Amino acid sequence: MKKNNVATFAKMKKNNEKITMLTSYDYSTAKLVDNSGVNAILVGDSLGNVMLGYEDTVSVTMEDMITFGSAVSRACKNAMVVIDMPFMSYQISDEQALENAGRLMKEARANAVKLEGGKEVCSQIRKITSAGIPVMAHIGMTPQSVNAFGGFKVQGKDIENAKKIVEDALAVEKAGAFAVVIECVPADLAEYISKKLTIPTIGIGAGKGTDGQVLVYQDMLGMFSDYVPKFVKHYAKVGNIMQNAFEEYDREVKTSAFPSEEHTFAIDESVMDEIKKSFQN
Ligand code: KIV
Questions:
Q1: Which of these, 152, 150, 155, lies nearest to 169 by C-alpha position?
Q2: pLDDT band at residue 1, thresholds of 50, 70 and 90?
């Protein structure tokens, strides 16, 4: 099977096929996602929350994205790897944006980069794409701007804000983005945008009318309990399974039930006898 790429995304939109994306941040998880048929893996800066325990994504660095991103890239044979540009790695200038996008391609082996924002980041999108680097845009609720929003809130509920989101979508498409994530906006608005754009829309908390969906894997597996957004569905309760396993391990070690013979290496009795003789028991 050929690795998913920007052409796969365009073809799937044209054929009305839903596109799937999940986050991953490490080699072992990315291998499982890569084997599942999911079209793209996002190394999201959500790693700040779910991997590093920050309360938002503001502190995530380029080095964090390169460390986690390159682990994911090494695992992927099928899924397209999209790596997030962290806060303040593209806002300062077009040149800074291109340099950092280039690092994610060269050092972390991304297949595309993602950045947050609408009209205000179009010149960065133009600059990065002009160097042959595919850009996924991200509009609606953009977590890096949590301080400007005054919290993680649904966007686009009033006329002015909804109009701004439509304009942002049209602007990032025109600037050259190959796809756009739409986060936390009302379903009807996301569906309207999806029909208006020629590039695929990937929704998260944006209803079923988008061209694809993305979720953070710890959310959909029930592994992250600090908060559970309304749009998250638990496809498995992996958090409970892990908790039970950790507790069982703790119990078994403390009662000497683990390790048993099957998990233990044997040595010839004569060797042990010699050792004991040499050390006077
Ligand atoms: O960082 C991330 O995981 C994201 C998704 C929530 C779209 O941007």
A1: 155
A2: low
**Distance (Å, rounded) from C-alpha 229 to C-alpha 152?**
10
- Whether the Cβ atoms of residue 138 and residue 92 lie closer than 8 Å to each other: no
Label residue 182 exposed, middle or buried (CB < 10 Å: 0-12, 13-18, 19+): buried
Query: Other C-beta atoms within 10 Å of 201: how many?
Result: 26
pTM, whole model, 2 decimals? 0.96
Q: Give the tokens for residue 188.
A: 């009807």
Write out the H or E segment, with its range, that includes residue 248.
Answer: helix 238-254
**CA–CA separation, 112 and 105 (whole Å):** 7
Query: Residue 81: beta bridge partners?
Result: 41
Any ligand 1 atom below 6 A from CB of 44: yes
- CA 128 to centroid of ligand 1, rounded, Å: 20
Ligand 1 contacts CB of residue 216 (under 6 A): yes
What count of residues does the chain have? Answer: 281
For range 234-242, the mean pLDDT: 97
CA distance 66 to 190: 31
Residues in CB range of 207: below 8 A, 6 or more apart: 186, 187, 188, 190, 191
CA dihedral of residues 143, 60, 178, 162 (deg, nearest 10): 10
pLDDT in tens, 75-105: 999 999 999 999 999 999 999 999 999 999 9
From CA 181, how far away is CA 115, in angstroms rounded? 10
CB of 86 sitting under 6 A from ligand 1: no
| Confidence tier at 141 by pLDDT (50, 70, 90) | very high
